[in-house]
Amino acid sequence: MNRINLGDIVLRWRRPIAAVLLAITAFMAYQATKVSIATRFVDLFPAAHRNSKIYERYGQYGGADTTVFMLEVKHGDIFNIDTLTRLQNIHYAANALPLVNHNEVFSLASYQTYYVRASPGTVEYRCYMYPYVPKNKAEMDALRETI
Fold it and tell me: Using an 8 Å Cβ cutoff, are 91 and 130 in contact?
């Protein structure tokens, strides 16, 4: 009986087998260069959560690690003492939250939100309404004009 020995076949055809294996390896190595390995921070959040859906719908919503607050006035505009006091309270409350980067909490009530006014011989940096909310109509009108 004539038995076929696999070892004999591999040794007899070693060069063609090596060429095929090298060709397959080269093809796989070339395809591996096209694989992209990256992690998007938003992928770490639950896709079904409403904030994740808002982020997908509105790219400028803030971000996966950012919270944006909006204060809406039903009648008129924000330039009244009650609304600006609420804005200041929201700002201070958000800044007081644990694990908040205090250098990235911005609003009109922030000392980091300012405007530049050029005067002869100097450039002045002024906060919009830090540390106080405007107290009267003249101050409120000045804030409105500045903004």
Answer: no
